[in-house]
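Re: [ENG-882] Designed sequences occasionally contain unexpected residues at chain ends

Forwarding the minimal case from QA. Structure tokens:
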């Protein structure tokens, strides 16, 4: 229930005060809501089954990373810059099997 409140507050705040003409705002909002949906499905399975298992690790990964192609392989880099300086983070995407 707390996740629904947090996602709702974030979505309403974004719609009220963000620059909706910026495509990245829509992308980040959509991705955040999608991950919230995965968490909700996980919680719902836990409640219905009356145990703490929820979605399997494989189920979560399949929902989060689907349709990766060989063309997507490589190093992804995120760079943030402001008046305080610059920070860079990178991640390597590999396919290790089906």
């Amino acid at each position: 229930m707390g996740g629904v409140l947090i996602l709702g507050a974030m979505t309403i705040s974004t719609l009220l005060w963000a620059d909706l003409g910026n495509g990245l705002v829509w992308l980040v909002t959509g991705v955040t809501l999608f991950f919230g949906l995965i968490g909700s499905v996980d919680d719902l399975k836990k409640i219905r089954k009356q145990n703490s298992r929820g979605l399997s690790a494989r189920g979560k990964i399949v929902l989060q990373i689907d349709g990766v192609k060989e063309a997507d392989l490589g190093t992804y880099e995120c760079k943030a810059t402001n008046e305080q300086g610059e920070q860079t983070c990178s991640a390597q995407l590999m396919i290790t099997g089906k």
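QA comment: On inspection the terminal residues look reasonable. Residues 2-68 form one domain. Proposing we downgrade this to a documentation issue.
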